[in-house]
Amino acid sequence: MVKRVLIYRLGSLGDTVVALPALHLVERAFPDAERRLLTNMPTHSNAPAAFSVLQGSGLVHGYMDYPWQTRSLRELARLWWKIVRFRPQVVVYLMGKRGRTSVRRDAAFFRFCGAGEVIGLPVGDLAENLYDESTDLWEHEGARLVRCLRSRLGEVDLRDPTNWDLHLTAEEEQRAQTALAPVQGRPLIACGPGTKMQAKDWGRENWRALLTRLTREMPEHGLVLVGAKEDAETAEYVATEWESPVVNQCGKLTPRETAAVLRHVELFLGPDSGPMHLAAVYGVPCAIAFAAIDRRGRWFPMGDQHRPIYHHVDCEHCLLEVCVQMRKKCLTSITVEEMVTAALEAWGEGQAGKEIKASDGSSRTCTS
């Protein structure tokens, strides 16, 4: 029987959320094992660490700090000693695309730490997101991670909402209810305009114009603003013209409490961000201004009810965090009118889905 499992996954909020189906799969495969996550601590104030997403979920029981991008032999020796003392029987490798040499080096390192088995190594076609020409979409990163584990751990249904569940606590749900008290009784829209990457920033004037248009279309809706503390001022500005009650929770909630809040909204608006993924986890339709810095579909919110706006440009897939030379043309070419249309379509899709669920008595939410 496997008693100790080490899961290797770096990244912050969004990276952790898209790995949820894989983490649920690991939990079911090794239910009696102590599962620890090897991950990096925050590298940016707007990038919550994995533990802030998973703490209390039961998916993992502890954490090891990975020294981000270190080349220090001393730091690597300390990491080796931590892993050796944990004595993992299995290492689950949940990393993004890496070169063959890096993958082999990582596998050798974990075996040197005493791991009997390393599963999920992204080799061959497992290292690449598959392309669907009929939809012009690349495989979602969460689906690729699951595909890496399939041969060893079996299948997982990405359409099943239980495979995305964060297992929010009663305290987190109560915190959400308290946060939403000023807009209680109204249908709600959420907006998270902030992002840690300049290349993903659609611009606060655009977000303000979008909300100004939408409040006229949806005058009965209250507005919930979410994000990090650093986003609070921008969020306040973009909501200046919103005609119904507004509550600004930027910096006041943990990621899990934010997820609990987003469960109560009918639409999420924002850039490619962690809050977007949290909203999608609970089936909230999203209208997203998407920078074309990565392949179309890889980081889209999971589900069919969303309306991400992604413009193909000659410099797409650049993976830039800061875009100066091309002036973010993939993103700045997205118009407010496009986003208004996307928002209303996504909201309509979500409402139609609720009606279908109500008519057939189903509690199942499509998330793929």
Can you offer a commentary on this structure?
This protein is an alpha/beta fold and 368 residues long. The protein folds into two domains: 4-164, 3-Layer(aba) Sandwich (Rossmann fold), CATH 3.40.50; 170-360, Rossmann fold. The chain has helices at 13-18, 20-29, 51-54, 73-86, 100-112, 141-153, 170-179, 204-217, 232-238, 255-262, 274-281, 329-332, 336-360, and strands at 4-8, 34-39, 62-65, 90-93, 117-119, 131-132, 137-138, 188-191, 222-225, 246-248, 267-271, 286-290, 307-310. Strands 10-9-8-11-12-13 form a six-stranded parallel β-sheet, sandwiched between helices. α11 (274-281) links the parallel β11 and β12. The protein is globular and about 60 Å long. Residues 363-368 have low confidence and may be disordered.
